[in-house]
Amino acid sequence: MSVPSCQLFDQTKEECGVMQSPLVDFSYVGIDAILEQMRRKAMKQGFELNIMVVGQSGLGKSTLMNTLFKSKVSRKSVLATSQEKIPKTIEIKSISHDIEEKGVRMKLTVIDTPGFGDQINNENCWQPIMKFINDQYEAYLQEEININRKKRIPDSRVHCCIYFIPPTGHCLRPLDVEFMKRLSKVVNIVPVIAKADTLTLEERDFFKKKIREELRSNGIDVYPQKEFDEDAEDRMINEKIREMIPFAVVGSDQEYQVNGRRLLGRKTKWGTIEVENIAHCEFAYLRDLLIRTHMQNIKDITSSIHYEMYRVRRLNESNTAVTQANGIPEHHLSAHEM
Amino acid sequence: MSQAEKMKQGQFTNPETPGYVGFANLPNQVHRKSVKKGFEFTLMVVGESGLGKSTLINSLFLTDLYPERVIPGAAEKIERTVQIEASTVEIEERGVKLRLTVVDTPGYGDAINSQDCFSTIISYIDDQFERYLHDESGLNRRHIVDNRVHCCFYFISPLGHGLKPLDVQFMKAIHNKVNVVPVIAKADTLTLRERERLKRRILDEIDEHGIKIYHLPDAESDEDEDFKEQTRILKASIPFAVVGSNQQIEAKGKKVRGRLYPWGVVEVENPEHNDFLKLRTMLITHMQDLQEVTQDLHYENFRSDRLKRGGRLSSHGYVLPLSPAKAPEPEEMDKDMILQEKEAELRRMQEMIAQMQAKMQKTGEE
After folding, report:
1. Residue B222 and residue B245: Cα distance in Å, rounded?
2. What is the pLDDT of residue B333?
3. What residues in A contact B272, CB-CB < 8 Å?
């Protein structure tokens, strides 16, 4: 449509008529104006994003979060702890920030899990995390089935879980496999290779291939999941991403002067690693995926698939409880096994 | 040139010369004999998978100790327990032979539950001590093979903020049995500032938990200044932050061993990049001291514990005569017990006799 349509709703019809050129397109209805309406509404409401970071201590989780959002959003920046002591049990720490860019407001919640994988005996260390995720689903469900429910249900569900793989260069560890196997069924998992500046390019490619093989052979479906591709276009884009995961990232919140520009990086005696240079590491790809291209998709999959599965299971459970209480023999209701 | 100076230079001086006894030649004799005999050294490497242990060992000794290595996948790792794999190579340099045994511990720290992962390692160390003790106490002591672990390189991950709980527990379990040298692996992950911070953290935590790592002996006061300075530098750099590599990279026109990254080349043998050279120097200059400490401290500890506990070591059908100076306690205890028993018996008999006498007196009176 080359005709300028009435995009701003506070322009009266006459004004539009004055602005319109004599070549009026009578077949134009103006349905596409809804995009602008949605945009204004979204700008007013703002967005919510809940990211969980999981990985052993020292893998650069907090630094990466700060680098991703170019501000001090991590637990370490907010809670001033001078000694980084490994906690004896896994703790779940949620920190929220309101950040804004070009008029778009976002409530970003970073959920940190200090203590994961750091103990000598790490059996069942994924349980507190599973419980937290399910608790968020439960809270949302409870609000949803309320008779007098809020207009906008506060969304504390975990949209994305970034799992940090230590850069051993060999293969996944049993802990990684166990964790991802269980959690990929309830939340979107984005695996990343942490502190990737310890791997040369050949080692990185070998490691990634090995990881993809092991994910495949263990039936672990990480984001973007194959079964949720909506159409051919989606599939094409996502296939390209699937061939690159896990992204090998390096994080930094310090700036250095490189070739006359100030860049985020790490300075060593043998060179400076530029975080946003795709020849050095894949941080830019991760940022694009999480923020610039797939953020809405991540939220959609969380609410329409993971949350729905939880909801179905929960409501079935309460159904069987009711039938049992009434002495009615329970049928075999499909319950999604964890 | 005076006799004394000639002696210092190790030259052969004619024993007929007056005022000269000749025992200053002894060190040369020892040197010649040791060179002929060759040296034995056993090095154990412990650390999680993927910390570059094998690469570092290959770089240190410029050999390939693991030619047919297959790294298992995660699924296989779930089933495995810690294994002990010893590989021996004979290296020769300028006529001096070194029989180097590297004891690798694959599987350490891999499992989800690493509670028991070091019992295998500790049993191995104890077994070597036991075997040596047995050989030493044997009849034919001519060819004792020394397989005791002289040194243990413990690899610490550079990714954490210090020692992990597993690191602390393991080092505390073995620091009385073997010389522990902590090494920070894959040090090219760290900037200089991060490296210094990590070293300080590790040293603090080692102090805090009372872990006894191997301490380099101070240079003697009569050594030359260079050596003293070198020892000072070495001591200040513990734990060593190392990078290993066996690949030759072209950098600044010359070939160096290193790792090629898109942002630069890490040179293994460049002291500004990492402490590899320091580690190698320490190992080579103090190999003898490591062996001595193993013999004089760890082995003696093991031996006295063992003899206090067990007493007799018998095998091959003969009973070991316990030398009176070394282990008198078990025999003495036996003798004491026999004496006590005999005394108790005597006392009982005396009581019975007294009773019988009393009875006889009574019947006599009646």
Report:
1. 37
2. 55
3. 269
